[in-house]
Amino acid sequence: MCYNPVVARLTPREEGRLWAVAETVRRAVAQGPYPSPVTTNSMGPLAREGDAFVLTTPGRRPRFGDVVAAVAGRAAVVHRVIGRRRGFLILKGDASPRADPPVRGAEVLARATALRKADGRLLSFETRRARLVAAALAALSFGENVVGGVAGPATARRWFYLAARVICLVLPA
Fold this sequence. Notes:
Layout: H1 12-30, E1 34-37, E2 52-56, E3 67-72, E4 75-85, E5 88-92, E6 103-104, E7 108-116, E8 122-124, H2 128-151, H3 153-168
Antiparallel strand pairs: 1-2, 2-7, 3-4, 3-7, 4-5, 5-6, 7-8
Helix pairs in contact: 2-3
């Protein structure tokens, strides 16, 4: 694994646990598509608790809008790529008020290719429409990250979440 300055501040036990989770995800994804259950609403309104991201090996360099599993700071997360800065990826949950700590490409464990909704529907992220929705959600998240620091996170959160809900209505169609 690469050196991550945020991870370096973890206790040895916390760091060991985090890298064990990362290695488990890598091994599971190497076996084939891996359903990663959604346990928080950080990727809402697209993904809710009870849904599952279908993870596969990254295969290519993550693009703007891709949903990836990565080690970010003190956790392994499944969040959207909203930018790049000095060789690092900037990730953020669609419903998270702030971006995650920057991650290196080597800390990306997998890429989500679909979302299995709790009702059984499968939403592919590989279609042209899904790529457009992903780019729109990434741009929205990036904008929220910038505006939230100026207008206040609560105000920005309400408007950006409403806009994300409207954008997500396009994906299943």
